[in-house]
Task: structure prediction
Amino acid sequence: MKVLVVGAGPAGTRCAVRAAQRVPRAEVTLLSAELALPYDRVALSKLLAGEAEVADLITHPVAELATLGVTFRAGVAVAALDRAARVVTTQKGECLPYDRLVLATGSSAVRLPLPGAELPGVLAYRDLGDVRAMLRLAAQGGHAVVIGGGLLGLEAATGLAARGMKVTVVHAMGWPMDRQLDPEAGGLLSTRLGRRGIRFIMPAATVALEGERHVQGVRLDDGRLLPASLVVMSVGIRPNVALARDAGLEVARGVVVDDAMRSSDAAIYAVGECTEHQGRLIGLVKPALEQAEVAAAALAGEAACWQPVPDSAALKVSGTAVWSAGEISAETAEAIILRDEDAEEYRRLFLRDGRLVGAVLYGDTADAGYYMRLIAEQRVVESRAELVLGSSFMDAAA
Ligand SMILES: Cc1cc2nc3c(=O)[nH]c(=O)nc-3n(C[C@H](O)[C@H](O)[C@H](O)COP(=O)(O)OP(=O)(O)OC[C@H]3O[C@@H](n4cnc5c(N)ncnc54)[C@H](O)[C@@H]3O)c2cc1C
Result:
C-alpha cells in the first residue's frame, strides 16, 4: 500500500514512522516543502536564544528514516491533489500516486496586511528559515520590534534580546499572553521581562511598517515611530488548507476530520494543525502527535479514536516559569488566588461546581502535572487548601 504523507512537521513525521511500523507491506513516503530534515519546531526558540544548535533540533536523520521504512524527500511542495486518480502533483510538476494520503501541512503564521509588510526585515516566526533570517539581522545589533505579545512573540523577544538586540514588544491587549494568563500573572511577566531590557507597549496597534529598501521603523496608531531593523510579526497562525479545499475535501477553518482522523474522502487522512475536529483547531505539538498515532493505527486497519484533552501551555524562556491550562476566565468560574510577593510566585485556580477547570501558575510550575490531571479528571475537589497548596507542598508537609 502506497502511503504518502504531505508535510514533515511533528505530526506528519510521527504518522509516517508509525505507519511504516504498523501497516503491513506499506511503502511510506514523507514529503516536506522545507529544505531541512524533520526538526523540532518547538525548539526553534532555543536556537534563537543561543541555547541550541541546528543539529540539536533534527529529530530524524535521513538514514534513520530509511531504516524505519520511510522514504523522505525534502524541498518537495505538493501543489495539487487529484482525488479521482489518487495522485498528487508537486510544484515541479512531478506526479506521485497514493493508495492512502495523509495531509500534515500544519499552519502558517498570519502576516498583518499593513503598508510596508513586504519590506525586507519583516519576518514571521514559524520555521528554520525565519530563525536563520532573524539571526543574520540580529548579528548587526540595533532595534527589533515584535508585533504580538503571545507565547511565541515573547519567545522571539527574549531570544533576540539574548542576541544583543534592543527589543520592544507591541501588543494589542493590556498584558502579554492574554490567552493563557490572567492580568496579574501577565503583569508579573512583563515586569520580569522588562528587567531583561524588553520594553512593552500595551495596549497598542501597529498601523504601518516604514522604510525604503529595508524596514526601518514601526508606526503605531498614536503616531509614535519605533526604530526597527527587524520586525517579527507574531499575531497568530492559520491552518494550511488550500490543497484540501481545492481538491473538494470538506474544509471549515481546518480540514474536517472524524475521530479516526479521516477526512471527507475515506482514502485521505489529516493530522496536526491543519485539522479541525468537532469544530476545534489545535495549536500544540502534543495533540498533533496523538492525532498522528491515531491516523497510523487507522491506516493499519485498527480501531482508533482521538479524544482531545484540555490544552496547556508553558513559556520556554529560561529563568521564567509560566504555565497555564484549561479555562482561565474569571467570568465563568470561581477563582482562588495564592500570592507570594517576595518570592514572585502566583497561582490562580479556576473552579466550577467544585471542579478545577483551569489554572495559571507563575514563578513555580512544579504542580503543573497535578493540576493538569485534576482538570482532565473533572472530579469534585475535596480540600480547597490542598488544592491551592498543590501536591509538591502536601508531599513535603507529609
Ligand atoms: C517557535 C515556535 C515555538 C513553539 N513552541 C511550542 C511549545 O512550546 N509547545 C507546543 O506544544 N507547541 C509549540 N509550537 C507549536 C508546534 O510547533 C506546532 O503545534 C506543531 O509544529 C504542529 O505540527 P504539525 O506537524 O501539525 O505542523 P507543522 O509543524 O507546521 O508542519 C507542517 C509541515 O508541512 C509543510 N507543508 C505545508 N504545506 C505543504 C505542501 N503543500 N507540501 C509539502 N509540505 C508542506 C510545512 O512546510 C511544514 O514543514 C511552537 C511553534 C513555533 C513556531
About this structure: The pocket of flavin-adenine dinucleotide is lined by residues 6-12, 31-34, 41-42, 44-45, 77-78, 104-107, 125-126, 152, 240, 243, 272-273, 283-286, 288, 316 (CB under 6 Å). The domain at 321-397 is CATH 3.30.390.30 (Enolase-like; domain 1). The longest helix spans residues 285-299.
